[in-house]
Structures are given as structure tokens and as C-alpha cells.
Write a structure and sequence with these properties.
CATH architecture of the largest domain: 3-Layer(aba) Sandwich
Structural class: alpha/beta
Radius of gyration: 25 Å
CATH topology of the largest domain: D-Maltodextrin-Binding Protein, domain 2
Order of helices and strands: HHHEEHEHEHEEEEEHEHEEEEH
Number of helices: 9
Strand content: 15-25%
Shape: elongated
Number of strands: 14
Oligomer: single chain
Number of domains: 3
């Protein structure tokens, strides 16, 4: 049993068909079937049940799949470490980031990192906090830039300073023209446009101040909140640093004075996986 056979087996398990796995591996079907047969003979166990249309892993096959994933992950990590050692502070740093942290990412060490290590290029993947955490688990990114609240689990975390939420609205919906601040209770009865991630935080904060929030629109992106508020459809609630992410030419904003209603940008990484030198240096400079 070798690394190549394990890769073949995992592809078969993922695709559920020898023919589909062969296409993905860019090889002929008969040699792949032979490799599977040799693996079963070597281990003395049937690894798949062959149905008319697809393959199903046996109990032995499921065990091998789990172990093979671990073995290949360690193999890939070892190769990355050796390549990293050879490259030094060069190569590509993959970062997953939520849209509402875009400005914060640029201001919290990225420019300083680039000046110090110009040989490092970047690959940025965007998503919500939960998808960024999933990307870390799959090894698609090395570092995630997310926003609280989230469950850190076994992740390494480095938090930036908390920032307040702001209420954004057009002049027609401004209930106190000229005031740069808003008390949370002033939002009672007003149509609120929010990002799903903050729904529980906003609801609990409003309830603690004696009212139930009137959610007019819930969405998956701070930019959508800004766009809807910019059209005068309601009052958006976003982190202060997210104000410049989307359409805001018609918007005013007020900082919500509520100690509970804050959020922080956080850099996260998988403590159980190898961290490249560029990733480690980036985390050192993140603040």
C-alpha cells in the first residue's frame, strides 16, 4: 500500500464510481479497477460494495478512507513544510475573509506585512464566518479573518479591539438630524435591516433594553444591508468599519451607544495544522 494507491482509493470513495474516478484522475478505468483490487487483496478485506450504478464503502472501506485522509494530510503538510523551508518568506498566503472585514484586513497589519515581505503574494477567498471556518478545516486557507460572535472551538484566535455598531439611514429616516450618536432604545419600532450573523446579538441587546426589534430585512452580507438602507427602505445596522463597503452615497450614520452591541474582527487559524512562515508572520503583525 502506497500514497498513490491511497489517493486512488479516496478519489473512488469521493466519486462513488470507478469510471467517474478514472476521469477525475485522468487515467483509464481498467488500471484503476486493478489498483483497487490489489489494495483489497493486500488488506484482505473488501473495501467497496459494487452496485449497478455506484459503489458503497464497506465498514473496512470507511475505516481506510478516514485513515487515508489523515495520512495524505500529513504527507501534504510535510511537503508544504519542506517547500516552505526552501522558499523562505516567499510563496502565496491564502486568506479567507468575511466581506465586512475588508477595511479592517487592510488596516490591521496587511500593508505592514507587504512592506516587510514583498516576495509573498496573496490569494483571498470570501465567505461568511462559518464558511471561512470550514475552509480552514479543509485546508483551503491558512488564515481566516472573521467577526465575532463565533464559536472558536479548537481554532487559534487573535482578536482586534471591539468596535461599535452603527445605524445607517437616509436623511428622510433620520429621527435626530445632526446627532452623531443613537441610543439603542431609539430604534424601537423602526424597520431594521440586518446581517443574519448579528441577529441574535441585536435581538438580545434590544430585549435587554425593553423592546423587541422590528426586523424588516435579514440578509447574508453587510453590503446588502448598506444597499437596502441606501435606497431608503429601512435602517441598517452594521459594524462601523463596514460603512465604506457598499453603496452609501445617500446614507447618514450614527454610532449606537450600547456596550453589548459591539463586534470584533479576529484572525483565526487551525492549531492542529502546519502554519507556513508567511502565515505565522502575518498573524504576528495582525492587531
Amino acid at each position: 500500500m502506497d500514497i498513490r494507491q491511497l489517493r486512488y482509493f479516496l478519489t473512488i470513495a469521493e466519486e462513488g464510481q470507478i469510471s467517474a474516478a478514472a476521469r477525475k484522475l485522468r487515467m483509464a478505468q481498467p488500471p484503476l479497477s486493478q489498483q483497487l483490487k490489489q489494495l483489497e487483496e493486500e488488506l484482505g478485506a473488501r473495501l467497496v460494495d459494487r452496485g449497478p450504478r455506484s459503489l458503497q464503502l464497506t465498514e473496512a472501506g470507511a475505516i481506510l478512507r478516514n485513515r487515508a485522509e489523515e495520512i495524505l494530510e500529513l504527507t501534504d503538510a510535510a511537503a508544504r513544510e519542506i517547500r516552505d523551508l526552501a522558499k523562505g518568506m516567499n510563496g502565496t498566503l491564502t486568506i479567507g475573509t468575511v466581506s465586512s472585514s475588508g477595511e479592517a484586513l487592510l488596516k490591521r497589519g496587511l500593508a505592514e506585512f507587504h512592506r516587510a515581505y514583498p516576495g509573498v503574494s496573496f490569494e483571498i477567498r470570501e465567505g461568511n464566518t462559518f464558511s471561512i471556518i470550514e475552509m480552514l478545516g479543509k485546508g483551503l486557507v491558512e488564515v481566516g479573518i472573521v467577526r465575532t460572535p463565533f464559536n472558536p472551538g479548537n481554532l487559534g484566535c487573535k482578536y482586534a479591539s471591539p468596535e461599535p455598531m452603527i445605524a445607517v439611514m437616509t436623511a428622510e429616516l433620520d429621527w435626530s438630524p445632526g446627532s452623531p450618536h443613537a441610543e439603542l432604545k431609539e430604534l424601537a419600532g423602526k424597520p431594521l435591516i440586518i446581517y443574519y450573523r448579528f441577529e441574535s446579538l441585536i435581538r438580545e441587546s434590544c430585549q435587554a433594553h425593553g423592546f423587541e426589534p422590528a426586523f424588516f430585512c435579514r440578509n447574508d452580507d453587510a453590503r446588502t444591508t448598506l444597499q437596502w438602507a441606501n435606497e431608503g427602505l429601512g435602517i441598517g445596522i452594521v459594524p462601523r468599519s463596514a460603512f465604506g463597503l457598499g453603496s452609501n452615497r445617500n446614507l447618514l450614520h450614527k454610532e449606537i451607544r450600547c456596550p453589548e452591541l459591539t463586534t470584533s474582527v479576529a484572525a483565526i487559524w487551525n492549531k492542529d495544522k502546519y502554519l507556513s512562515s508567511p502565515a505565522a508572520r502575518f498573524l504576528e503583525l495582525f492587531h
